[in-house]
Amino acid sequence: MEAPQKLYLLDYGAGNVRSLVNAVEKLGHTITHIDTVEDFARADKIIFPGVGAFGYAMQALRNKGFVEPLLAYIASGKPLMGICVGMQVLFEGSDESPDEPGLGVFEGRVERIDSSTKTVPHMGWNAAHVVGAHTTQGPDMGGDRRYYFVHSYAVPYTACGRQQEFVHTATRYGDEVVVSSAWQKNVFATQFHPEKSGAAGLSALQSFIERDLVRSSDLVEISAPATIEAALTKRVIACLDVRANDQGDLVVTKGDQYDVRENSEAGGDVRNLGKPVDLAKRYFEEGADEITFLNITSFRNMPFADTPMLDVLRQASRCIFVPLTIGGGVRDITDPDGQHVWPAVEVAGEYFRSGADKVSIGSDAVYAAETYWQRVADGVPPTDGTTAIEQIASRYGQQAVVISVDPRRVYVRSPSDAPSHHVIATSTPGPQGEAFCWYQCTVKGGREPRDIDVRQLVTACEALGAGEVLLNCMDRDGTNSGYETDLVADTKAAVTIPVIASSGAGRVEHFSDIVDRTDVDAVLAAGIFHRREVPIADVKRHMAEHGIPTRTVE
Question: CA 72, CA 111: separation in Å to the nearest integer?
């Protein structure tokens, strides 16, 4: 009887590898972590995932003494699969960390994606076009499938030099075409995340695990970059507000302008729309492109390591293979005993290790932006590396940090009435006929207004290193009247990072309308999905019928 293959995971501490382990187990296999140099010799196949900065990944490999054993493993002819930064470090170097050499397995250099013509990071579901026919059966990829990308740096696809020897697929993002997978001899690597790409990604991963993906050395003619077509889709995101009800059970709830009780004046029960993991699994199966958990219970009376949301993430990541975001409580935390202090970057790390791909920062983002602008006013450098945004982005990458904005309209008769804020003409006049407003940011779940507007907040947070904006609107929340178009359009114009429109969707037309009018990167809804008033499939079908590309579910 043939001995089972020994599949190993090379984890340098980059973040969420739990999802990859869960994906491997979903396919019926087991995987062992590489802990020592000796483990390289024991492995039959290695998967090398990575997120975050190129330099951090290479330094971590060197600190562990893994660079030479990894190169020796590759030279032995045994199969290796790199994912995201695990692919990038196989090249010669990266503009992200100019002084840090890569492993040099593939020719070429990783470059920054141009943000002057599009949003960066490249975040969402895109195609991977096979660029040439091979005599060897390749990975199960291509066609009309979409894969989940999230990166700010990439290897340009030129079809020149030695790229015909190793480029397997290429992907267009706006005016650039990048290498989305590489395959040379025993090394296969993807820029996208197969473990977060639903059935399409699992098929690619299964190809590596269950087949001998050793590419012949035959040179093939590969497609010109100009022939690679655009295929990026607009994301549809399901959001679950999670809190403990009066009985102490975690439930999904939904507020009406942030009030989550059935009858707040009479002290009614918290609205219970279902169990978090059950609902999230349903949304994954219905085609949600991402799932966001917003934790609106503080859990201050228990150690952070025992927070129920960690278990929610662990359970959800076992059955959900699209990106998971967790928001609420991403800040410095002191356990009730006063002995253990969790810096925000460690809180985020624990969420990532439990299955999250991104963390959403709310109140602390507002405080960080206030400090940023105060430092500008004081004439000192506005960033100093101390904020949660900076620290998490530095360790886990810009794409891992989402800022969640909870603003409300403040009406004024003219821009001169609010000289210190960004005032815009509003399509929703105020109670006294006011034609202008500015959007005031709030903290503590919308309970406390602050003297900072959305434009000030998002531009500061982008400078601090945030990778995405989750844009709510208190005036629209729970109204089913449509998104706040003025706010979304103004925010899209202010930043180069992706923006998610949230609050107010009530009909399928609202989704297509906000995309058509603002070109927002993603649309999010909660209550209408929970109550099945508007199914996710209907939203995607409607968007597709109106010429908006969406991901279909295999």
Answer: 27
**Catalytic-residue membership of 256:** no
Give bridge partners of residue 526 from the DSSP assignment: none
- The radius of gyration of the chain from alpha carbons, rounded to an integer in Å, stands at 24
> For the residues of 137-191, what is the DSSP string, one character each?
---S--TT--EEEEESEEPBP-S-TTHHHHEEEEEEETTEEEEEEEEETTEEEES
Q: At 195, is the secondary structure helix, strand, or coil?
A: helix
Model confidence pTM above 0.90: yes
Q: Is 129 a catalytic residue?
A: no
CA distance linking residue 49 with residue 59, whole number of Å: 15
Verify whether residue 100 is a known catalytic residue: no
Place of tokens 């739990």: 18
Q: Whose structure tokens read 């804020």?
A: 421
Closest to 232 in 3D by CA, of 115, 146, 117 = 146
Of 39, 195, 290, 364, the catalytic one is: 195
Q: Write out pLDDT tens, residues 462-497.
A: 999 999 999 999 999 999 999 999 999 999 999 999
Which tens digit of pLDDT belongs to each residue from 482-537?
999 999 999 999 999 999 999 999 999 999 999 999 999 999 999 999 999 999 99
Integer Cα distance of 56 and 62 in angstroms: 10
- 84 classed as catalytic: yes
